[in-house]
Amino acid sequence: MGKDNEGEEKKYGDPAKFDPEFKGPIENRSCTDIICCLLFIIFIAGFLAVGILAWVHGDPKLLLYPTDSQGNLCGNGNYASKPNLHFFNLLDCAGFASVLDGCPTPQVCVATCPTEYWAYAIETAKMGLGQEPDWSKFICVEGVNVGSGAGLTAAQIEQYVKDQKCAAYTVPSKAYGGRCIPSLVETIATTVLTTSADDIPLVDSAGNNVTNSKISAGTAALALILSAQEVVQEIFTDMVSSWYLILGGLGAAMVVSFIYIVIMRWIAGVMVWFTIFAVIVLNIFGIYYCYTQYVALENVSGADSSIYDVGFTTNLSTYTKLQDTWLGIGIALSVILLIILLILIFLRNRIRIAIALIKESSRAVSNIMSTLFFPLIPWILQLILFAYWGAVALFLASSGQAQYEVQDYNTTNTSTASNMTGQSCTPTTFDTNAVSDSVQCAFVKYGATSLYYQNLFYLQIFNLFGLFWVMNFIVALGQCTLAGAFASYYWAFTKPKDIPTFPLTASFGRSLRYHLGSLAFGSFIIAVVQIIRVMLEYIDHKLKDSENRAAKFLLKCLKCCFWCLEKLLKFLNKNAYIMIAIYGKNFCVSAKKAFFLIMRNILRVAAVTSVTNFLFLLSKLVVTGAIGTLSFYFFTGKIVFAAEYVPNLKYYMVPIIVVVIGAYMVAACFFSVYNMAVDTLFLCFLEDLERNDGSPEKPYYMSKELMSILGKKNRKEGEKEKKGCCGCC
C-alpha cells in the first residue's frame, strides 16, 4: 500500500525538498514571460487606439435623441423645441424589426404628442361646407406648407395624405423615450376607431380602417422596449432621490464587514458557528415572513391568480400581491435551509479544520492590516476600466453618418418611380418633383461604407475582449500581491518578529517589476474562455427560434462545458499566482508546481477549500442579509423614528436591491482578502509538510494549532518523532 501511494505521488512530481536557504518569497528573481508582457503592452495600445477612434467618429447624441425621416435629431439643436417623434402610420411598425431597422413610415419631430382622435377627413369636410379647417391639427413633413395662406384645396390635401407627406390620422399618445406611442385602453380591439366629436372613421393613407388591434400590433414591440426604457428612467430617478441613503447603506456594510473580520481575529470559532446559526435564523425568518404574506392574501381578490396568468410586467408590485410569489420564495428558502442543515451535519469535522485555518488567517491579516484595504486599489482600477469600456462601447455604437434611401410611401403608386425604392440617395440633391410626389429620400439608419464602419462589430468584440483581459489582469495583480504578503507571514519562523517590513508593498513591487508577463498570460487564458462564452450566448440568441434540436442541445452542452472550464482555470490560475509570488517562476512552471502540489494533497485541498469557501459565503450572506433587512424596514417606513427621512419613491425596492447588491460586493471585497489568506497559507502549509519533518534541523513553520490538526509538532533535540494522524484530515 505504501508503494502504491508513493507511485501516486511520483505521478504528480516529487514532493518539495528541504532547502536551508529558503525563508519565504524569493527576493533574487528575474522577469518572467517577457513576450507575454510585450504583447499585453501592444494590446493595451490597441485598446486605447480603439477608444480614440470611437471618440473621433462616435456621437452619443445619436442614441439619446430620436431621428426623424429627414435625419433631424428631435430635441437637439434646431429641433430642441420638438423633442418627440411622431409616426404617421403606426400600422406599418409591427414587429421588432421596426425597432432595429426603423419603422417604414414617415416620422417627424413634434413639440407635443397628439392628445385626441383626429382624421384629415374632418378638415376636408369643413372645406366642403365652406368652413376654415383647423390647420394646427395637420402633422406634415418639413417643407410642406399647410396653412391658411397656402391656398390648398381638399383634393391637394388628400393627395398629400396619399403621398404620406401629411399624417392621415392621429390618436391619443404618450411620449415614451421621445417617441409618441398610443395608449389605447378604452376601446374594443376590433372596433373601427373614430373621432370623438364627428364620429368619422380613422383611415390610413391607403384608405384602410384603423382599429385598436391594428395599432396595438403595430406598436407592441416599440411600446414594450420604450416602456422598459421609461421604467429604467424611473428607476434612475429613484436612485438619484435616494443616493445618499444608498451610500449610507454601503458605508454600513463596510463597517459591519470590518467589525465582523476584527471580531473573527479573536473568536473565529464562535463567529463561524454564529454565522451558520445567523444564516439559519435569517432563513427561518424569511420563510415565516413568506408564510404571513401568503396567509394575509388568502381572502384578497385576485391574489390566487397564477404568475403565468399575470405574465411579464414592469410593475413589480403586481407580483407581491400574488400568493404564488410568496409560496415560491418560501419553498426556495426552505430548500436552501435543508441544504445548509445537511452540509452542517456531514461536514462538521471539516468545519473544525476550516476554523483553524481562518484563525491563522486572522492572525496574518491582523499583522498585515493594510491587506484589508488593498482591494480598494484593484476595485478602483476595475471601476475606471469598466467606465472606459462603457464609454468606448457607447461611442462605437453611435459611430456613423446618416444613411438615406428612396422610399415610396404611396402603396397605390404603380409608376416606374416606385422601382427606385431602397436605393441610396442624398436629401440635398434628391428631386422629388422629378420622380413622384410620393417618393421621398428618407433617413434609414446611421452607418457608412468606409473600412472603419464596416468593422464596427469586430471593434466591439475587440473592446469587449479588452474588458475581459484587463479586468482579469487586475484581479491577477491583486491576488499575486496578497499571496506574496501572506506567504511572507507564513514563512516567518518567529511571528511577528521575522515578518519583513512592509510585506504588502514589497509584494506589490515584485509583482509589477517581475511578473506582469505571467499575470498577463494567466488573465489572457481566462479572457479567451470568457469571450468564447459570449459568442456562444450570441449564437444561442440567434438560434432561439430554430427548430434544430440537435444544434440547441450541442450549444447547451458547450455553454455548460465552457462555464466549468472557466471556473477550473480561475482556480488553477489563483494557485499559480501564489506560486509566482513565492518562487518567482514563470506562469507555466508555477501552474504545474501548484497543480502537482494540489493533486498530491487532493483530499485535503478539496475538503478544506470547499468548506472555507462555504463559510466565507455564509459570512458574506450574513452581512448582506443584515444590511438588506435593515434597508427593507427603513425604505418601507417601518422604522417609526426614521420614517420622515424616507424619500418619496416610485419603486421602493430599487434602493433596497441596490443596497443589497452593493453590500454583497463590499462584503466580498473584504472577505476576498481572507479567502486569499486561507488559500495562500494552506498551500504554504502543504509545502511545509513536504519540506520539513519537525526535527530541529527542519522545523515546521506552521502554528501549533495547525500542527495539531495532523498531530504534528516541532521536536526538541534528541526527541523521537511520534506517529501522527493518518492523513484523512
UniProtKB/TrEMBL annotation:
<keyword id="KW-1133">Transmembrane helix</keyword>
<dbReference type="InterPro" id="IPR007603">
    <property type="entry name" value="Choline_transptr-like"/>
</dbReference>
<keyword id="KW-0325">Glycoprotein</keyword>
<dbReference type="GO" id="GO:0022857">
    <property type="term" value="F:transmembrane transporter activity"/>
</dbReference>
<feature type="transmembrane region" description="Helical">
    <location>
        <begin position="34"/>
        <end position="56"/>
    </location>
</feature>
<dbReference type="GO" id="GO:0005886">
    <property type="term" value="C:plasma membrane"/>
</dbReference>
<feature type="transmembrane region" description="Helical">
    <location>
        <begin position="368"/>
        <end position="389"/>
    </location>
</feature>
<comment type="similarity">
    <text>Belongs to the CTL (choline transporter-like) family.</text>
</comment>
<feature type="transmembrane region" description="Helical">
    <location>
        <begin position="270"/>
        <end position="289"/>
    </location>
</feature>
<feature type="transmembrane region" description="Helical">
    <location>
        <begin position="576"/>
        <end position="599"/>
    </location>
</feature>
<comment type="function">
    <text>Choline transporter.</text>
</comment>
<feature type="transmembrane region" description="Helical">
    <location>
        <begin position="326"/>
        <end position="347"/>
    </location>
</feature>
<keyword id="KW-0812">Transmembrane</keyword>
<feature type="transmembrane region" description="Helical">
    <location>
        <begin position="243"/>
        <end position="263"/>
    </location>
</feature>
<feature type="transmembrane region" description="Helical">
    <location>
        <begin position="467"/>
        <end position="493"/>
    </location>
</feature>
<feature type="transmembrane region" description="Helical">
    <location>
        <begin position="514"/>
        <end position="536"/>
    </location>
</feature>
<feature type="transmembrane region" description="Helical">
    <location>
        <begin position="651"/>
        <end position="674"/>
    </location>
</feature>
<keyword id="KW-0472">Membrane</keyword>
<dbReference type="Pfam" id="PF04515">
    <property type="entry name" value="Choline_transpo"/>
</dbReference>
<protein>
    <recommendedName>
        <fullName>Choline transporter-like protein</fullName>
    </recommendedName>
</protein>
<feature type="transmembrane region" description="Helical">
    <location>
        <begin position="611"/>
        <end position="635"/>
    </location>
</feature>
